[in-house]
Structures are given as structure tokens and as C-alpha cells.
Amino acid sequence: MTDLNHTAREDLAVLLADIALAAGPAVMEVYAADAAVSSKSDGSPVTLADERAEAIICDRLARALPDTPVVAEEMTAAGRQVAIADRFLLVDPLDGTKEFITRNGEFTINVALIEGGKPVAGAVYAPALARLWFAGDRAFVCDVPVGSGLPGRAAWTAIGARAAPERLVAVASRSHADAETEAFLARLPVGERRAAGSSLKFCLVAEGLADVYPRFGPTMEWDTAAGDAVLRAAGGVVLTASGAPLAYGKADAKLRNGSFIAWGDPAAAARFR
After folding, report:
1. 73 is in an annotated binding site
2. 74 is in an annotated binding site
3. What DSSP character marks residue 156?
4. Along the chain (273 residues), what's the average pLDDT of each consecutive run of 10 residues?
5. What is the pTM of this model?
6. Would the annotation count 122 as a binding residue?
7. 137 marked among binding-site residues
8. Is 181 a known ligand-binding residue?
9. Domains of the chain, residue spans
10. Is 61 annotated as a binding residue?
């Protein structure tokens, strides 16, 4: 396994950010056209935006990192299998397809690099919100209109998760409410609840705008990797039910995640286990 230094990780974060941004126009073109929706074999929705964005991202990754395998949501759904290596890329070209369909803008383009089971760099772009989060060793956010490239460093704002206050701000899925989430949050001193779609929930915790994000429903590794990379770089943690960090490259589980809790403050994660 290559041990990336600070400069290398930041360079990778910038690369992944540029690639996520490149897919933005294709997604927004379909969004503006109110395109038809089809279904995958598991019944989940897919749009032309998913397919176009994935093609753009995978093409650019193949040219920029030709020796690094790419695992992407739509190619996997189509039955194309990629051997999982110690170092590989995870792509979710459109996380929050339900948000895309309901047209609330809370969908994201996600690209992450995994090394040794951990997300070491990632980018989350919300084109309808013109907002980009990206991270290597450090996490940043900036405003990027669709069709624009990554601005210079002066436009980046470094972000960090906050120490948990006495009354927590919890963020949960807008489209996937469930009894387990309600039961978990009922045990915590929650003073405010927010709803958000897609990987935006990780980003809210990473920016210190929320403290905890529980997820008990099913997710895949590409759903979480980029947001997890941003949150980890911002000082947060994403833990499984056993208290272990969420791991990547789970070939035996076909890249499925179990339940997890994303925390901004690791001390709060330990306190409320």
C-alpha cells in the first residue's frame, strides 16, 4: 500500500474535485429537461443523468489514474465486475436520485479514492446548489457554479466538525425514514433535527452544521465513500454498530454497508455508544 503524503493527498483531492465538477453540466442538462426515470433490477430509480455522469467520470479517471480500478454504481448494476484491489476508486454519479426526481436540488456527484479500506480522498459536488466539498488530509468547501472549474485556493474554505454541544443537531435522510433511526435519536439529547438528501448529510456534519447522522437502512460503499472522506478529514468519524470505522472494499459483502453512525465529535461517539 502506498503511504500518501500531505501534498499527494491534496493533489488527489483536487483531481477528484475537478472530475466531479466535470460531470455537473451533464447532470443539470437532464435535470432541466425533466427526463424520464427507469428502474434498476433492484427497483431503485435511475435516470439518464446517472449514466451520462458516470461515463464522464470513468473516462476521466481512466486517463488520470489508469492503474487504479474504478468501481461505479451503474456499471455494477449492469453486471460489470471489477476486481477490488487495496487501492481503488468508488463512484456514485448521482447520489440522491429520489431528490433529483422530486427536484429539491439535494443530489450529489461523488468520487472517492480508497486505500487500505479507508477513504483517503474524496469529492462531493451538489450541482443544483453550486456547492463542492473535497478532502485529502484536510477538508474544504467552495461555491462552484455548474460548468466552472475548481477556483483557486483563495476561494476554498477549510472546514472542521465541531465539538458536540449539550444539545445535538441531528441530520437524517429526507427519503429513508425508519423506526430504528427514530429510536436511536430518542436516546440522544437532540435539540434540533434536520433532513437532507444524499451525501449532503456527511457534509453538514463535516462543516459543523450538524453533530450526528445515523443510517440504519441499506447503503452501498459508493454512497458513503466521498462523504466519509470529507468527514474524516474534518475530524469526524463514521462508525459501524460494533464501534469500528466503516470499512471499504468489502468484497464478501458485495460492497454493501451495514448500519452506521456519522459523528462530528469522536468523543461524543464514545460517550453515546
Report:
1. yes
2. no
3. -
4. 73 98 96 68 66 97 97 86 90 93 94 98 99 98 98 98 98 84 96 96 99 95 99 99 96 94 98 91
5. 0.94
6. no
7. no
8. no
9. 6-159, 168-271
10. no
